[in-house]
Amino acid sequence: MLGRPNLDFDLVVTGDAPHLARQLAKTHGERVTIHRQFGTAKFRRGNLTIDLVTARSETYAKPGALPTVQPGTIWDDLLRRDFSINAMAIDLSPASFGELVDSHSGRSDLERGLIRILHERSFIDDATRILRAIRYEQRLAFELEQDTERLLRQHKSMLDTISGDRIRRELELILKEDCPERILERAEKLGVLQELHPSLRGNGWLAEKFSEARQLAPPDPAFYLSLLAYRLTDEENESLIARLNIAGELELIMRQVLQLKRDLPSLADPTLPPSSTYRLLKHYVPKAITTCALACDSPSTRSHLELYLSELRYVKTSLDGDDLKRMGVAPGPRLGKMLEALQEAKLDGSVSTREEEEALVRQLMGEN
């Protein structure tokens, strides 16, 4: 209806979707995967995958809980949807093939450019719909329908009923959009961003940095999240990590971004030798350095960060520990210090060949 390409097909079956999938497999010899406990199946033909689901109705035991589902009609199934524009279906039965099933005026809302929930408890039952409403509104250049916006503002605190993992997944989907800063700015104006964490801001600085990031390379959600963290305090950052249940590499990046931010004044001197830049940055992961390079304001600091990322971290000496042992350097702290001295000399251009490195080692051995 919007004239956009779409290869994401969901087939809703009034009856038994796994049974239909098995019939398709038997008739066409294609691959199907059955999930009997969920009443769903996947049908695959070449690169095409179609989800087959049994029409269901759902109830919520409490706000924020995952729904309890049971078999139902197509109208029950459409009522489960988030908004009127995705509560439409095309009838595939022979008697009415191709007819639009639109019990919630989705086509009218699509034509008017409106995002509208299906009932007044929608945001209470599942507050992640608040984030999806804003995401779809900005993606499609639509508007929140008047009552939908009123209820969104009224029930935005229901986001507290949603687990950190589910909130994080919704935030990652926002950050995969073409212009996530528009969504975050709108979320801030609606008071939603502050519900995720009081210190988050979707302001002009963020929009500028997100735009710059896309000019460098296609950013991933982790990079955007680390930019979000850049302007937080340590306490705010730890609180955000806990709220979104962030772990693993992203947790490390978000912490290192703030650690490196405190070290950035040391990189402001334009005459800083490469070895000093390397010594300061070698313990940080590249994504944390990339974030700070984009976020910082000092041209000299950014230049040092970019030099490390593009060149310094790849500089290797010709000699290694085994070579130094063969030259008579005993294992231990002294050997480690000599390797560091070799590395810094290579970075600063004092040595460039293996022979020059060997000469430096002999000089250091003589001094000791």
What key attributes describe this structure?
368 residues, two-stranded antiparallel sheet, elongated
Write the layout of secondary structure elements.
Elements: E1 9-13, H1 17-28, E2 31-35, E3 40-45, E4 48-54, E5 56-59, E6 68-71, H2 74-79, E7 89-90, E8 100-101, H3 106-112, E9 114-115, H4 122-125, H5 128-140, E10 143-144, H6 146-155, H7 164-175, H8 180-189, H9 193-196, H10 204-216, H11 221-230, H12 234-243, H13 248-263, H14 274-281, H15 286-295, H16 299-310, H17 321-326, H18 333-348, H19 354-367
Parallel strand pairs: 1-4, 9-10
Antiparallel strand pairs: 2-3, 3-4, 5-6, 7-8
Helix pairs in contact: 5-7, 5-8, 7-11, 8-10, 11-13, 11-15, 12-13, 13-15, 14-16, 14-18, 15-16
Brief characterization of the structure:
With 368 residues, this protein is an alpha/beta fold. It contains 19 helices and 10 strands. 32% of the residues are buried.
Descriptive account of the structure:
The protein has 368 residues and is of the alpha/beta class. Among the domains are: 197-314, Methane Monooxygenase Hydroxylase, Chain G, domain 1 (Up-down Bundle), CATH 1.20.58; 321-367, no CATH class. Helices cover 52% and strands 11% of the residues. It contains 19 helices and ten strands. A four-stranded mixed beta sheet has the order 1-4-3-2, covered by helices on one side. Strands 5-6 form a two-stranded antiparallel sheet. A two-stranded antiparallel ribbon has the order 7-8. Helix 5 (128-140) runs parallel beside helix 7, helix 14 (274-281) crosses helix 16 and helix 15 (286-295) packs antiparallel against helix 16. The N and C termini lie far apart (79 Å).
